[in-house]
């Protein structure tokens, strides 16, 4: 066990109450903004003190409310990359990097050597005397990462590292960051509200909702077999209905007023059902092999970049979103809102949730 | 023309500005961290000298330091000199009256400071002292400078409390402002006018300095942007 966190803190608007462990891995924390992700990182770093709990890294206790242990942030040696990168605005790039070496008693030459190494590694040559305000978002992030790595932290925490960047830059920096994380090799926490980033970068993920976190699960599991409705929602699922398992192999989707046939073994106590929009497709009547085929009315047809988004509703039921690739839609292109259409769902794509 | 009042005014203003600079900044820094209720009470007390008539401030200073008061008596017996009616008595008056200006502007500057800068400094292992002087203070530089200049100007122009605490003794406690009043009172209009001009000149220089500093700052920002 590398990192163990179990903390509680009352913020008034919500209560942070989370518990998780992380090994030598990249653990993602997925949640919407304001759910307590950043606060969790700040508690681990020691700049915010939890009301109660225990934080431990590599057998060093950072915080224990019962034993009255609370190490200063300076004594914890963890790296925290802030969302706005928090570079010192009054210092240029080199001064920002040198500041990080103050804690280590190094000779002037050794200092210069390490700074120069980092400058080269993060493609910062030529920017030595630029102030943070003169740097692009991507350059700022590189300086901030370089500055953290100069302190040789025992673990790394990244708080929405790409949120402040435009989409074009985001992808480039994500590739760079993946290399950095691979080389770093120690425990890393990656906080984001973006499921795609989490899926690509993290090994495991825990979902945070209203200050409460779920048990970490391997990333792929969250997307294929999520357990809770929140987890499925954060993993990008768009269609949910309250549900009850009527009998073996049959689930009543109450909001949609339809009965779905699927494997219910071990999921008898499910309360919700979720279906990803791109796993639902329009079918023609001749497709008899599918067991879940329903007639719906088309409410709206929205053209997206690479697909059509259909909003359909079963008889007297809540709306369902269907994503159809442009190629597949060719066959149905005569359809207009108000028409009836048949939609089909594979049994394996029906997610039973709590 | 005897230049003593100019010299005396400047030394009082400089010394009280230095005192106010440090005390104002540290009060602003530490009070911001206190419980809201305590903060509110202290805030009122520390800002009062700004809104009270200077004579009321002078009254309180005399109440505390006057030569017939316990502390004044003790001080005279121990050091053989009085705390009031000396040139340095003006420092007490000027410091107390100028303090709220520094305190409030510094507090405003600290409140707009991005705390994540301080947090990131801490996680990088930097001492709180280093973060305060090398990150927080430079980031709040404009507000701090504005506060210092305002405090200096206020200390230089102090009249009410000073006249009560230090009085007017030519060559000993006279400041520009008390001199102008005395000269006017004794119908020496011409000399009073000369001192008025001196005062206007100093104020103009201070204001020019402020404007130039501000211009330099915005120019620096523009080239950085």
From TrEMBL, chain A:
Domain (ABC transporter) ranges: 1-235
Pfam families: ABC_tran
Superkingdom per UniProt: Bacteria
PROSITE patterns to which the protein is assigned, alphabetical: ABC_TRANSPORTER_1, ABC_TRANSPORTER_2
Molecular function terms from GO: ATP binding
Transport recorded as keyword: yes
Name of protein: ATP-binding cassette domain-containing protein
Species this chain originates from: Jingyaoa shaoxingensis
UniProtKB/TrEMBL annotation, chain B:
Membrane-related topology note: Multi-pass membrane protein
Keyword Oxidoreductase belongs to the record: no
Main location: membrane
Ranges annotated as spanning the membrane: 12-32, 44-65, 85-103, 192-213
Pfam families: BPD_transp_1
CDD domains attached to this UniProt entry: TM_PBP2
UniProt keywords, alphabetically: Cell membrane, Membrane, Molybdenum, Transmembrane, Transmembrane helix, Transport
SUPFAM superfamilies assigned: MetI-like (SSF161098)
Domain ABC transmembrane type-1: 6-214
Cellular location(s): Cell membrane
Matching InterPro entries: MetI-like (IPR000515), MetI-like_sf (IPR035906), ModB_ABC (IPR011867)
Stated role: Part of the binding-protein-dependent transport system for molybdenum; probably responsible for the translocation of the substrate across the membrane.
Similarity comment text for this entry: Belongs to the binding-protein-dependent transport system permease family. CysTW subfamily.
Xref: PANTHER family: MOLYBDENUM TRANSPORT SYSTEM PERMEASE PROTEIN MODB
Protein name: Molybdenum transport system permease
